[in-house]
UniProtKB/TrEMBL annotation:
It is found in: Membrane. It comes from Geobacter hydrogenophilus. The chain crosses the membrane at residues 6-27, 39-57, 85-108. The lineage of its organism: Bacteria, Pseudomonadati, Thermodesulfobacteriota, Desulfuromonadia, Geobacterales. InterPro entries: Fatty_acid_hydroxylase (IPR006694), Sterol_Desaturase_Related (IPR050307). One of its GO terms (cellular component) is membrane. Residues 88-224 form the Fatty acid hydroxylase domain. This is Fatty acid hydroxylase domain-containing protein. The keyword Aminoacyl-tRNA synthetase does not apply. Keywords: Membrane, Transmembrane, Transmembrane helix. Pfam families: FA_hydroxylase.
Amino acid sequence: MHDEALIRLAFFFGVLAAVAIGEVAAPRRQLTDSKARRWYTNLSLAAIDTAVVRLTLTVLPADMAVQAREHGWGFLNNVVLPPPAGIFLAFIALDLIIYLQHVLFHFLPVFWRLHRMHHTDLDIDVTTGNRFHPVEILLSAGIKLGAVALLGAPVVAVVAFEVALNATSMFNHGNIRLPLTLDRWLRLVVVTPDMHRVHHSVILRETNSNFGFNLPWWDRLAGTYRPQPEGGHGGMTIGLKEFRDPALLTLSRLLVQPFARKPA
């Protein structure tokens, strides 16, 4: 779907620019690593991930939604609901599935080897929201394709979810300082930067919390919600204990990292 690609691209650059400006105007933390090197690495990964998905998959989630509607696949294509209700239910269900996928990628060792690359960033900012291994992105796309087919999700819901997932990922990884009152109210409906930053703590029990990307409800319902890091946002250490050398976190090394016998 050509329009879907243009919509996603426009939102990607718009949100990237807006959050990047916010990071300069009101940073939450002092950066400890080279911003230029990290931005090059993380944005290169975003470009590689997009190319791999587009060149590898013949069907994308929005295309699957169209096929599901035409063939009558999935739950929502076999029940009578007002269109807004179907869109809302599909969006909520897709978000729950991504939450469960995220938990799975933390607790199954074979998936963690892929996902841990996301956590090796020594700082966290808007570009960290695009720091994923291409194999993880392919697996995630496959999960979404299956979910869209089983749900019979409307194409509008799928495009809205894809746009929101990428936008909120960049927003909640942003190194931006929000007023505490605003953050407290916002995190009732969306994952905020202060909420998600806890997930990037070097402390394992904090890493294994706050798994949500879009909606904050699943963490609260599942008991994986942690409101603040133990050391405070200014004092917490970002990343993983076994990956602290910036020289080993270059683009080429990150791409082969999941297949190494043991951490460097």
